[in-house]
Amino acid sequence: MTTVKHGFPWNHLIGFVLSILLTLFAVFIAFETDFSKTVIMWVIGTLAIFQALIQLFMFMHITEGKEGMLNVINIIYSIFLALVIVFGSIWVLTSGHSAIH
Amino acid sequence: MSLDEFFVTGDPLILASQIAIGLTMIGLIALVTYLKRWKWLWSEWFTTVDHKKIGIMYILAGVLMFFRGGVDGLMMKAQTSRPNLEFLDAQHYDEIFTTHGVIMILFMAMPMLIGIMNVVIPLQIGARDVAFPKLNALSFWLFFVAAMLFNVSFVIGGSPDAGWTSYFPLAGKEFTPGVGNNYYAIALQIAGIGTLATGINFIVTIVKMRAPGMTWMKMPMFTWTSLVTSIIIVAAFPIFTVALAYMTLDRLFGTHFFTVAAGGDPMLWLNLFWLWGHPEVYIVVLPAFGMFSEVIATFARKNLYGYKSMVFSVVGIAFLSMLVWVHHFYTMGNSASVNTVFSLTTMMIAIPTGVKIFNWLFTLRKGRIEFSNAMLWSLAFIPCFTIGGVTGVMLAMAAADYQYHNTMFLVAHFHYVLIPGVVFAVFAGLYYWWPKMFGFKLSEKIGKWHFWLFVIGFNLTFMPMFFVGLDGMSRRMYTYSEGLGWEGWLGFSAVGSIVMAAGFAALCYNIYWSFRYAPRDIGNDPWNARTLEWATATPAPHYNFAKIPEVTRLDPYWDMKKKGETGLKKSDLKPVHMPSNSWTPIFLGVAFGVVGFFLVFEWFTLAIISSIGIIIGLVANSFDYDEGYHIPVEELEEEERAWRGDLK
């Protein structure tokens, strides 16, 4: 991964096309469909996450360099921790007895 | 506040310890002054940034805290040895089980393991120090000051008494108005800063400073487990930091994070505490697993069986350890689906642990086993820990846990996990790496006394607790009536604790005896070991390696010995860059301690004024442009010749 690749920048092209597609799709969902507001928010939120991932990998060279893989593992682990702590706590504290009253 | 509120009064036991502490302090100061050792102590130890010396100080503090926590344990055992005893009253008993728990986990297990990590890890990966030596010293001093602050509570102001878990609402101001629980909140916060810094330090050290050629899959197992432990520290300790900050705000400034009064939720404390508390179990047990792996491989004369599966199970444990915290409070009234999910994740964690047990057994299989003391501890660990693990799976079943919850069965379970899993490992590690630290072995003969007394005493003490637990005795009971059928078990258990204490005394005697009489000419590799820490002199020189070794495979030193490549060429020597000593870590540690003490007593003006000390320390540290110094080649040559004979 440390070697510099020459030749046609396929990664950049694919990333660019995907980003545009995802954006257009989000616009379509938001303006051209009859989903409720919550559904729209969820869908475009999900699309935004995908697009962020594409940017990280295709343009921000997250996997390149000496510690590339480590960065990726780091980010994934941090996200995992944040999700577990936040949603885990909410779930644990709002189900059971707390949910009854 | 009057003076008799400040000092704890009215209990002859505590009065005796107050006098004893006073006399010991005066004695120590007089001794150091008499021997004219103040300057030596300051320049060689207090200001050191050498990872080996910091490690030794950690271990020393850990042994001291082991003694304190052990005395707490003995007092509890004495109080419950017969029904209706009046040796301790309820309040005193509460304080003692609280400090026993906190001290054993945070001020004994943690520093012992971090101490051994400090001594061994840089040597094992072929580095000259940790990544941030000064930060390492700061970690130690923060831990040490926090431990002292916590310990002083039983003579000044009163000890925390809401259990080591300090559950709200009991731990809140309403039900525990004294300063005791402030000690818990403040001292653990200070220690936590140090631990977090240690975690970061060791991650960077292991990721960035391994010897050339030591790829991920060529790292020794102890290095792997220490790395994963450091990662869990960085993941989990901030949760505790936040929980303790909430607790401090609740107790000192009247907020209501955990009190129902203004919409707070005591369950939130439990939730946050165990979000940290369960990973904490793996923080202390993983380095221990690594130590056993090193010791077993060395004394079975085989490479570790299933190295890769060992690595994957360690990483798997790190992942799963964040997903099981609710099993500490199944009975709090969670929904059935919550309890089911956490039952399953808890049982899943037995899988990687089981993989490790079998790997150790297969490492032993057909090995040429040498029953050294380090090996004995590792062998005793396997069956004892398995009992702890199996009872853990019993407790993991939420439905069954309603029977076991908060009984002595649980107490027996976690002692069967933590004593074999951590204490046995620390003993194995001490016997194994003692020569690396001090240049002589601990006596194998006295060590056998230590081993047998401690292991037999341990089983006698804690095995009966399973049965009184099943008979319905709940934990933290300071006394009980006659005729419940518990007297026999608990009497037995009390006798066991004395045997165990005798084992600890044998260790102390062993250290004293070996220090005076053990032979010093043991060479650099007294155990015929496999990893890099033995490739340099024993005890390790302050620069660790004259030339950084190159690694081509797992167990690199074993490989070098086989190929006859352990020698050193004169032409390979280059000046070694070393960090300078620094006064800022100990200064900052003390400054934090002073601020902490004032906060405990809620003397806010004094706390604010004294926090200037922390700022001074931080500023002084930022303007410290010391770039370290170089050891010239001549000095290296001289030191290397001293143990290698001639250089090539």
TrEMBL record, chain A:
Coiled coil: none annotated. It is an enzyme of class 1 (oxidoreductase). GO terms for biological process: aerobic electron transport chain; ATP synthesis coupled electron transport; electron transport coupled proton transport. GO terms for cellular component: cytochrome o ubiquinol oxidase complex; plasma membrane. Keywords: Cell membrane, Membrane, Oxidoreductase, Transmembrane, Transmembrane helix. It is found in: Cell membrane. GO terms for molecular function: cytochrome bo3 ubiquinol oxidase activity; oxidoreductase activity, acting on diphenols and related substances as donors, oxygen as acceptor; proton transmembrane transporter activity. Its EC number is 1.10.3.-. It comes from the Bacteria. It holds the Pfam family COX4_pro. The chain crosses the membrane at residues 12-33, 39-60, 72-93. It is a multi-pass membrane protein. Belongs to the cytochrome c oxidase bacterial subunit 4 family. Catalyzes quinol oxidation with the concomitant reduction of oxygen to water. This is Quinol oxidase subunit 4. It comes from Saliterribacillus persicus.
UniProtKB/TrEMBL annotation, chain B:
It is a multi-pass membrane protein. It catalyses: 2 a quinol + O2 = 2 a quinone + 2 H2O; 4 Fe(II)-[cytochrome c] + O2 + 8 H(+)(in) = 4 Fe(III)-[cytochrome c] + 2 H2O + 4 H(+)(out). The chain crosses the membrane at residues 12-35, 56-76, 96-123, 135-156, 183-207, 227-249, 281-299, 311-330, 342-362, 374-400, 412-434, 446-469, 489-512, 586-619. It holds the Pfam family COX1. Residues 34-552 form the Cytochrome oxidase subunit I profile domain. It is found in: Cell membrane. SUPFAM superfamilies: Cytochrome c oxidase subunit I-like. Its cofactor is Cu cation; ferriheme a. Coiled coil: none annotated. Keywords: Cell membrane, Copper, Electron transport, Heme, Hydrogen ion transport, Ion transport, Iron, Membrane, Metal-binding, Oxidoreductase, Respiratory chain, Translocase, Transmembrane, Transmembrane helix, Transport. The keyword Transport applies. GO terms for molecular function: copper ion binding; cytochrome-c oxidase activity; heme binding; oxidoreductase activity, acting on diphenols and related substances as donors, oxygen as acceptor. Pathway: Energy metabolism; oxidative phosphorylation. One of its GO terms (biological process) is oxidative phosphorylation. Its EC number is 1.10.3.-. Binds a copper B center. Heme A3. GO terms for cellular component: plasma membrane; respiratory chain complex. It is an enzyme of class 1 (oxidoreductase). Belongs to the heme-copper respiratory oxidase family. Catalyzes quinol oxidation with the concomitant reduction of oxygen to water. This is Quinol oxidase subunit 1.
